[in-house]
Design brief:
Elements lengths: L1 H21 L4 E15 L2 E8 L8 E4 L3 E8 L7 E4 L25 E7 L5 E7 L9 E7 L13 E10 L4 H11 L8 E4 L16 E4 L4 E8 L5 E6 L4 E6 L2 E8 L2 E3 L4 E7 L6 E9 L11 E7 L21 H9 L19 E12 L15 E6 L2 E3 L6 H6 L32 E3 L3 E3 L4 E8 L8 E5 L4 E8 L18 E2 L1 E4 L3 E8 L4 E7 L2 H5 L3 E6 L21
Parallel strand pairs: 1-4, 3-8, 9-12, 11-19, 20-25, 22-23, 24-32
Antiparallel strand pairs: 1-2, 4-6, 5-7, 7-8, 9-10, 12-17, 13-16, 13-18, 14-15, 14-17, 18-19, 20-21, 25-30, 26-29, 26-31, 27-28, 27-30, 31-32
The site of one 2-acetamido-2-deoxy-beta-D-glucopyranose has 4 residues, from loops.
Cofactor: Cu cation
EC number: 1.10.3.2
Family: Belongs to the multicopper oxidase family.
């Protein structure tokens, strides 16, 4: 009898524990209606693909620990997928979204529900389409507030604002990339950058709609800044005001006082700004940082920081922030190097020290033979532009890799992406190496559950040297080292920061430089890794990481949802 009531109690206790763990976060439901909508910008009107008629799209606002179920209803013209950028999606690659990597496209007239589980992330992330170039107009902010009962590791800001920076093309983005891929040439550049959908005062026909943010003197605000541009790293600043970076990619950082930030496509940064200047109007501005050789959009987008109260509005000149020069690599490099993870008692940096797998990966611009029937392409010497990781230009399959892996469908990918580049040479000095022309294939990196990975990305100058915004799905990683030139695997690890490195999901790999990162492969599934500069991605600068299941249910992928979009 005593025994029985004991076990009864245990059952009750167990039930309570389950209830407790389930009630930790709230559940949110969102419907995203994908459809075309006309917008007039830069004096011309065009139809773009949007979510719910808005550009940028709706904001998802949750607390850490919450779960969102998002149902995407495709009422557009072509198949699209949606990705939750920076959300780890533990054990659940089925909801991650990259086209033909974890799912086939959601076809027009159909819908698909994704489960977005917010676990460790806190700060700012974003969602975007992950099919060809559709993300140019299909994207929005994700705000992850501290869990109920916890707060920011800095004084509660008086107000908050999201600033998502986009890139606007007068033409149709799908036509632009398809025509570039057909000719082998660089895609044409964009016509404007935008802040919250508005180009700002420096563009024609834009002054009336410039984005404005009203602030109260003496108060501190949290700006959540996202670089959603397609192809350019950006610098961002606010005239006469300092910025204090407090978070990147939904992880807190040590406060960094600066007058500009450098932000690569895909990155998010949380900055504090105090309204401590004379009441007035001040420009918020973003312009590209570019030190490659290709054509780029060198325009500047602006919004206005406007103090509240009674004062005479400025008649003409609004002050502009002083931003680094378009090609000031040193400044950008220094900014990236000065970022530190918070590494506090409440937000410890669990930097892996016991590395079990070392990967060295070259990141290159390349060329491939022309495939046009008339035999001539517009890339260098009549070739077509390409790009690669470890000299492999990745081919996107027609059946998603996750499906092929889960159901053992052979012939879709091979498990032999190498841990080393095929040739060692002076990667950052030799422009005409034997790696100018890469191999092609769908080769993936395989990991056992819990492998402790150190991955070094090595920029090369095979065709041209450029910066790259490297992004990994399914994980955040610690940036333990960054440097110029070739990585030296004996001396460079000695200067790693294993104490308070920033924890990110996207990072700018400097031109002709290297970057070392670490993570534990404890998220079973199929995870895309790619350059977030969209034209580089279109040319094959990606691969896939597959983390095998561990031995238990808790260390294995969850089964697929009842419905996954079919492959055609
Ligand atoms: C999008 O629009 C649909 C249909 O009008 C609506 O039901 C839904 O709530 C909207 N979603 C968001 C996130 O605003
Ligand atoms: C937050 O927690 C407090 C008590 O700790 C509770 O009263 C409140 O309902 C919670 N709010 C939400 C949104 O869960
Ligand atoms: C603005 O319009 C003028 C007159 O049409 C044109 O010359 C100029 O290039 C345009 N500027 C921009 C930034 O588009
Ligand atoms: C910006 O930061 C510098 C260095 O800490 C400081 O000297 C300066 O007063 C700050 N300016 C503003 C406008 O807060
Ligand atoms: C931007 O590029 C255009 C075209 O190459 C050039 O004419 C212009 O001077 C450049 N502007 C700036 C600010 O560099
Ligand atoms: C940046 O460009 C300017 C003008 O073209 C040039 O004078 C300067 O040397 C360049 N700086 C760097 C760091 O390349
Ligand atoms: C970058 O930092 C180094 C070392 O602190 C310094 O010597 C150099 O002048 C800085 N470069 C720029 C462009 O700020
Ligand atoms: C490091 O990893 C190896 C291999 O997994 C293991 O044998 C060893 O015990 C680990 N050491 C520490 C200090 O964790
Ligand atoms: C183009 O061809 C010329 C002549 O064969 C060669 O010298 C040059 O390296 C080639 N350039 C590229 C980028 O392939
Ligand atoms: C993905 O696969 C579908 C067929 O299932 C194909 O129509 C589509 O073009 C593929 N997408 C890419 C980016 O290759
Ligand atoms: C690699 O090439 C660069 C640029 O030519 C040169 O400065 C550097 O010394 C070379 N490194 C080695 C190890 O040869
Ligand atoms: C270290 O680099 C050298 C070339 O510099 C290479 O031959 C060697 O394989 C590398 N070792 C490891 C463990 O990556
Ligand atoms: Cu790139």
């Amino acid at each position: 009898m005593i025994l029985e009531s004991h076990s009864f109690l245990l059952v009750i206790l167990g039930f309570l524990v389950i209830c407790k763990s389930q009630s930790q976060g709230n559940v949110h439901y969102y419907d995203f209606v994908l459809k075309e909508k006309s917008f007039t910008k830069l004096c011309s009107t065009k139809s773009i693909l949007t979510v719910n008629d808005s550009f940028p799209g709706p904001i998802i606002r949750v607390h850490k620990g919450d779960t969102a179920f998002v149902t995407v209803h495709n009422q557009g013209k072509y198949g699209v997928t949606i990705h939750w950028h920076g959300v780890r999606e533990p054990r659940d690659p089925w909801s991650d979204g990259p086209e033909n990597i974890t799912q086939c496209p959601i076809q027009p007239g159909t819908s698909f529900t994704q489960k977005v589980a917010f676990t460790l992330e806190e700060g700012t992330l974003w969602w975007h389409a992950h099919s060809s170039w559709t993300r140019a107009t299909v994207h929005g902010v994700i705000v992850i507030l501290p869990a109920n009962g916890t707060s920011y590791p800095f004084p509660e800001p008086y107000g908050q604002e999201t600033l998502i920076i986009g890139e606007w093309y007068k033409g149709d983005v799908m036509q632009i990339i398809n025509s570039a891929l057909a000719t082998g040439d660089e895609p044409i550049t964009s016509d404007a950058y935008t802040i919250n959908g508005q180009p700002g005062d420096f563009y024609n026909c834009s002054k009336e709609t410039t984005y404005r943010f009203l602030i109260d003197y003496g108060k501190t605000y949290l700006f959540r800044i996202i670089n959603a541009a397609m192809n350019e790293e950006l610098v961002f600043g606010v005239a006469n005001h300092n910025l204090t970076v407090v978070g990147i990619d939904a992880a807190y950082t040590k406060p960094l006082n600066t007058n500009f930030i450098a932000i690569t496509p895909g990155q998010t940064m949380d900055v504090l700004i105090t309204a401590n200047q004379k009441r007035g109007f001040y420009y918020i501005a973003a312009s590209p940082f570019y030190d490659g050789t290709a054509m780029y959009d060198n325009t500047t987008t602006t919004a206005i920081l406007q103090y509240s109260g009674n004062y005479t509005p400025p008649s003409s000149s609004i002050p502009m922030p002083i931003l680094p020069a378009l090609n000031d690599s040193g400044m950008i490099f220094n900014f990236t190097k000065s970022l530190r993870g918070l590494a506090s008692q409440d937000h410890p940096a669990k930097v892996p020290t016991n590395v079990t797998r070392k990967i060295y990966m070259t990141v290159s611009m390349n060329e491939l033979p022309c495939q046009n029937p008339n035999g001539s392409c517009l890339g260098p010497n009549g070739t077509r532009l390409a790009s690669s990781l470890n000299n492999i230009s990745f081919q996107i399959p027609q059946i998603d890799i996750l499906k092929a892996y889960y159901w053992n469908i052979s012939g879709v990918f091979s498990e032999d992406f190498p841990d080393q580049p095929p040739f060692f040479y002076n990667f950052t000095g030799d422009t005409r190496s034997n790696t100018l022309i890469p191999s092609t294939g769908t080769r993936v990196l395989m990991f056992d559950y819990n492998e402790v990975v150190e991955l070094v990305w090595q920029g090369t100058s095979a065709l041209t040297a450029e910066n790259h915004g490297m992004h990994l799905h399914g994980f955040s990683f610690f940036v333990v080292g960054v440097g110029t030139g070739n990585f030296n695997n004996v001396t460079d690890p000695k200067s790693y920061n294993l104490i308070d490195p920033p924890e990110v999901n996207t990072i700018g790999l400097p031109k002709d430089g290297w970057l070392a990162m670490r993570f534990v492969a404890n998220n079973p599934g199929v995870w895309f890794m790619h350059c977030h500069l969209e034209r580089h991605a279109s040319w094959g600068m990606h691969t896939v990481l597959i983390v095998r299941d561990g031995g238990t249910m808790q260390t294995s992928m969850v089964p697929p949802p009842k419905y996954m979009p079919p492959c055609s």
